[in-house]
């Protein structure tokens, strides 16, 4: 087995054990989207043009993608915290592949996220969301969702290594709450004023959300939208791969260099 | 010769922005010895260790660790070193056992679980092995930290204040571990603020000051460098002034006064100042002398004299000493 693969697996195990040893934070993180589904689904759902059950089915993919986008915050926080506590430095003095530490963080995060999305899907099923497309399409949707999470985590790790501050990560995390609000995650973008609609449709969250709705068969692709939303699967892939290409190499380099 | 010196650096330099942290570090540590790296805060100890452990790249200069080039063969260097303390810590979210297993695995040790069990036993951590390391006391954490560095015998071990905050049993574990390691040929670079610790553990001392090595030598050599400590204890504090004046005249240096012990002391390199002469001169000046001594200086004295700064906030020594000095 290659050094990189071996080290990444060993360090992924470490990250997963950490979650198992103190599961409280992971549990709290998972509660959030479920609460939002119930809150948005019943409060906003009754005021929107979409009928209630239909809005909740519309909302579930949006919340899945918002949760995936939370990788930005989680990645940043963990990377900053590890740097701060000198754990990363210990790994850097070991004969460990330079890329293994950030890759293991992102890989473990994927496992935790995938498990964490199960409660949201179950509650979604209970309030009226369904997989209305084919099984391969649904699997494609899950794949896109996890790829996007991985991309957001990579971006977060880079920013975390850049700032090296858990406080900064916390602050940015709080403000990253608005990112899904400026997308079609919670509302259709069709009725937004032109300039705002453009911003929302070029938000990566919109492309991924639209792709999920399309693949799950929850809502049709909106007409006359910007390119990433009009071609949601391609748009979601391009956005995710672009984020990985932009943030993963410098994160690995920065980890190797030690800031 | 690469095998003679475990650490050999020439002219290592590092600056952070405009601030020079290291201004040409020349260090030679013989294989199987313990070298104490001492220096006041800001002397560059941390930067030196971070460079020598591949955590930072030098701006200039070169170094070889166990014969391998620090920069060009950094990956090989990492298989030969171990680092503890403030420079690198264990993971508080993992248990002690999980930490050791992980490090053993990353070092490609055969049977990582067995090795972890062995180390837990050796460092007296078996009982708390399955608790998260974050819940450990300071001393337990320090022992775990050292154990994690020993999953595989390193050629060079970088130890940071290894016994600070440990109870006597904990200090025993650490000192025994250091002795066992050097007996097996491991070289130890010890950084500490506690001179007593360096005095007991180190074969050689490298005294750092403002980004350079100011002096090197065994503790005895360094002490010889600054001479002897002449002290007079008088019957009542009123006589301290007279005693100090005599010491000043004999050594040409202003003595430090310790009022609560009614003592005055000063360092001297004058070989003609013998104990009988010291006693005669003090007696002739009418000093009510209770005790007089000429003793080797402590490393604290060395430190103070050679770097012009106190090593630590002197919580353990008498506070008037600093005012007087």
Overview of this protein structure:
The complex is a heterodimer of chains A (259) and B (325). Chain A is mostly helical. Chain A has one domain. Chain A is built from 13 helices and no strands. Chain A has helices at residues 3-21, 24-44, 52-69, 71-85, 87-92, 100-126, 135-163, 166-175, 178-181, 194-201, 204-216, 227-230, 232-257. The model of chain A has no long low-confidence stretch (mean pLDDT 89). Chain B is an alpha/beta fold. Chain B folds into 2 domains: 5-223, P-loop containing nucleotide triphosphate hydrolases (Rossmann fold, 3-Layer(aba) Sandwich); 228-295, Alpha-Beta Plaits. Chain B is built from 12 helices and 14 strands. Chain B has a 6-stranded mixed β-sheet, sandwiched between helices. In chain B, strand 4 (60-65) and strand 5 form a beta hairpin. In chain B, helix 3 (96-106) runs parallel beside helix 5 (138-149) and helix 8 (219-226) packs across helix 11. In chain B, 46% of the residues are buried. The model of chain B is unreliable at 310-325 (pLDDT under 50). Classes of the chains: A mainly alpha (259), B alpha/beta (325). The A-B interface holds A 7, 10-11, 13-14, 17-18, 21-22, 85-87, 89-96, 257-258 and B 50, 53-57, 75, 78-79, 81-83, 86-95, 98, 102-103, 105-107, 132, 148.
């Amino acid at each position: 087995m290659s050094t990189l693969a071996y080290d990444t697996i060993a360090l992924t195990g470490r990250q997963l054990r950490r979650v198992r040893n103190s599961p409280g934070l992971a549990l709290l993180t998972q509660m959030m989207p479920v609460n939002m589904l119930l809150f948005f689904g019943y409060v906003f759902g009754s005021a929107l043009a979409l009928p209630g059950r239909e809005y909740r089915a519309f909302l579930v993919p949006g919340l899945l993608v918002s949760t995936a986008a939370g990788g930005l915050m989680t990645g940043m926080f963990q990377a900053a915290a590890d740097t701060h506590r000198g754990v990363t430095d210990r790994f850097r003095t070991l004969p460990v592949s330079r890329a293994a530490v950030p890759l293991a963080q992102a890989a473990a995060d994927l496992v935790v996220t995938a498990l964490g999305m199960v409660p949201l899907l179950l509650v979604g099923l209970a309030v009226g969301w369904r997989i209305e497309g084919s099984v391969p399409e649904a699997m494609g949707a899950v794949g896109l969702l996890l790829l996007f999470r991985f991309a957001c985590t990579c971006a977060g790790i880079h920013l975390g290594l850049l700032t090296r501050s858990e406080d900064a990560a916390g602050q940015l995390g709080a403000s990253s709450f608005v990112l899904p609000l400026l997308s079609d995650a919670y509302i259709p973008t069709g009725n937004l004023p032109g300039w705002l609609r453009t911003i929302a449709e070029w938000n990566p969250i919109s492309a991924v959300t639209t792709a999920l709705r399309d693949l799950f068969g929850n809502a049709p692709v909106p007409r006359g939208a910007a390119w990433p939303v009009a071609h949601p699967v391609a748009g979601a892939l391009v956005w995710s791969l672009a984020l990985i290409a932009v943030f993963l190499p410098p994160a690995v380099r920065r980890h190797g260099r030690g800031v | 010769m690469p095998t003679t010196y475990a650490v050999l650096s020439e002219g290592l330099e590092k600056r952070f922005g405009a601030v020079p942290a290291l201004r040409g570090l020349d260090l030679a540590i013989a294989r199987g010895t313990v070298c104490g790296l001492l220096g006041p805060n800001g002397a560059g100890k941390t930067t030196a260790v971070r460079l020598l452990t591949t955590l930072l790249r030098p701006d200039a200069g070169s170094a070889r660790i166990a014969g391998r080039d620090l920069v060009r063969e950094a990956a090989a260097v990492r298989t030969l070193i171990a680092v503890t303390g403030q420079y690198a810590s264990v993971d508080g979210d993992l248990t002690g056992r999980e930490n050791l297993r992980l490090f053993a695995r990353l070092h490609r040790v055969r049977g990582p679980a067995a090795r972890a069990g062995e180390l837990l036993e050796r460092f007296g951590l078996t009982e708390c092995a399955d608790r998260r390391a974050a819940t450990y006391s300071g001393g337990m954490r320090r022992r775990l930290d050292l154990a994690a560095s020993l999953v595989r015998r390193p050629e060079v071990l970088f130890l940071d204040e290894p016994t600070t905050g440990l109870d006597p049993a904990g200090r025993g574990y650490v000192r025994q571990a250091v002795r066992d390691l050097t007996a097996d040929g491991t070289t130890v670079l010890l950084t500490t603020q506690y001179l007593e610790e360096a005095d007991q553990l180190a074969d050689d001392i490298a005294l750092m000051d403002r980004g350079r090595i100011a002096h090197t030598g065994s503790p005895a050599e360094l002490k010889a460098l600054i001479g002897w400590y002449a002290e007079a204890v008088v019957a009542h504090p009123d006589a301290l002034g007279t005693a100090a004046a005599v010491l000043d005249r004999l050594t040409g240096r202003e003595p430090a006064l310790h009022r609560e012990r009614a003592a005055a002391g000063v360092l001297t390199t004058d070989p003609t100042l013998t104990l009988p002469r010291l006693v005669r001169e003090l007696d002739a000046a009418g000093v009510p002398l209770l005790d007089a001594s000429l003793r080797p200086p402590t490393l604290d004295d060395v430190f103070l004299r050679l770097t012009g700064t106190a090593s630590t906030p002197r919580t353990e020594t008498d506070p008037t000493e600093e005012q007087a000095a």
